[in-house]
Amino acid sequence: MASMNGKKMRLKFKLVFHILIALIGFISVILHVVYSPDPLVSLTKFTIHSNLLVSITFMFSSFAILSRRDRNSILEYFKNCSIIYMSICILTYHFLLSSGGEYTGTRIITNFTLHYLIPILVFINWFVFEIKEKYSLNFIFYWMIYPFLYSVVSLVRGLIDGFYPYFFLNPNGEIPVGVGSYTNVALFIIAYLCVYFILGFLLITLNGVFLKIKNNIDTTSKHVVERAEVQN
Questions:
Q1: Are 86 and 113 in contact (CB under 8 A)?
Q2: C-beta separation of 25 from 55 below 8 A
Q3: Suppose 21 and one of 58, 101, 167, 179 were both cysteines; which one would form an S-S bond, judging by CB atoms 3.0 to 4.6 Å apart?
């Protein structure tokens, strides 16, 4: 009975946490774009796309929890994407882009929530609430599909109208405007895909480690209960 009540309470906390992530994500994306000096440029950013994906994912996950069907392979796929994309979001911004521009007013707050707060909340959710599973290495390539398509589409658009969402996708000009050639762009994309691969591998490895720990704990608990029943 106590175990059942604990599971229900945990599910309620998970629901509240998912709703919180979805709300912060949607509000931050909308305000960041609306208060941008160039909203159309903001809409091309991977930060906006990835945070919107996170918001939609956790919104549907909230509905799934309410309908008691929170174990869903599609949702699990997008939750894993959320972890990896948010890792890229916080790492890329912090180490490559944070010195590239100044934010004012509302966008100071939304810049923080989109690049730091939401990624941290997504990590906490995975660590605390999500059931760990064993994944094959093939999943890494599934998680890399969107970033690869984003890079390709950005390059094609740049060829058409000369606009590139990030300097490392711009073959024209020198840093900080661009990277000087398509060869350098290709090297940046390959480097990023390698980072995605590493993050995917880490996610799979950590899932496996936590799953093994859980199985060991469950096995130990089962043996303790069995011994207690024999003694009684």
A1: no
A2: yes
A3: 58
Show the 3-state SS of 15-67: HHHHHHHHHHHHHHHHHHHHCCCCHHHHCCCHHHHHHHHHHHHHHHHHHHHHC
| pLDDT, the chain, mean | 89
Alpha-carbon separation of residue 207 from 23, 204, 210, 213 (angstroms): 27, 5, 5, 10
Whole-angstrom distance, CA of residue 27 vs CA of residue 51? 11
Tokens of 100: 């590239």
Q: What is the pLDDT of residue 10?
A: 87
Q: Which helix (H) or strand (E) holds 71?
A: none
pTM of the model: 0.88
